[in-house]
Amino acid sequence: MAGAGVKVLCPNPKAKSLADLNGKGRVQVYAIDLGIIFAMTIYNIHGWTDGANNKMQAERTDAMITAIMEDDKLQPEGPGARQSSMVRHRKAW
């Protein structure tokens, strides 16, 4: 939930490869307005399961990450923040 005065936006991806995937359950682009000249773009992703054992699943996730990287390169220059975090869920903890 956004705090007081913080705006969460859903910008349109600039890369066609990401636009084809965005909002369909595997990736969603968000932006958080952190002030007058500062925004943080967030790529919330959910890769395909079992990529370590399933080549097709791994390739699908790799293609999605490539689309995200392409989109990030097309974002306007200027003040902003980048944070990368990949979480790998294990079958058993």
Explain what the structure shows.
This protein is an alpha+beta fold and 93 residues long. It has one domain (7-81). 26% of the residues lie in helices and 20% in strands. It contains 2 helices and 4 strands; from the N terminus they run E-H-E-E-H-E. It has helices at residues 16-19, 55-74; strands spanning 7-9, 27-33, 39-45, 80-81. It has a 4-stranded mixed β-sheet, with no helix packed on it. Strand 2 and strand 3 form a beta hairpin. The longest helix is centred in the last third of the chain and has 20 residues, at 55-74. It is elongated, with a radius of gyration of 15 Å.
Task: Spell out the blueprint of helices and strands.
Layout: E1 7-9, H1 16-19, E2 27-33, E3 39-45, H2 55-74, E4 80-81
Parallel strand pairs: 3-4
Antiparallel strand pairs: 1-2, 2-3
Q: What is the strand tally?
A: 4
Spatial order of strands in the largest sheet: 1-2-3-4
The 3D shape can be described as elongated
Rg, Cα atoms, Å: 15 Å
Largest sheet: 4 strands, mixed
Summed up:
26% of the residues lie in helices and 20% in strands.
Using brief descriptors, characterize the structure shown:
single chain, 93 residues, alpha+beta, 26% helix, 20% strand
